[in-house]
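Quick log. Single chain, no ligands specified.
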Amino acid sequence: MKKAYFLLTFVLFSSSQQLLAQDHTGHSDSGMGAEQIFGLLEMPFLAIALVFSFLTATRLKGGKFGSGMTLLAWGFVVMALGHLHMQIAHIFNYNIFKNIFGDTAGNYIWFIALILTWGLSALGFYKIYKASKI
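-> predicted structure:
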């Protein structure tokens, strides 16, 4: 029982980063400010969350908890790619989505990525919640 609470707390803590930095406009000044430095500092923690979410999903070997954790892990992958995109936009003033797909399509793809992250995370949490009501 304590492991389930620890797992749920860890997942909630890991996914809270997604709510902190949703702005993806590219702006850059001459030096690295605190915003850019803190943005870069969150990347290793996001990588750790990715690694442990997939390790946890693998250890659970499918089942109800494992399928929920797998959905969360894939949601974290999309979130990590979005955060990497944001850091590139903030530091190098290069918006990957807009440069590849254009202004309109790039914004839509960014929006779809956000919805996909939230959807996979919500569905994963819901499956874990349903499995915990045994």
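Residues 15-26 have pLDDT under 50 and may be disordered.
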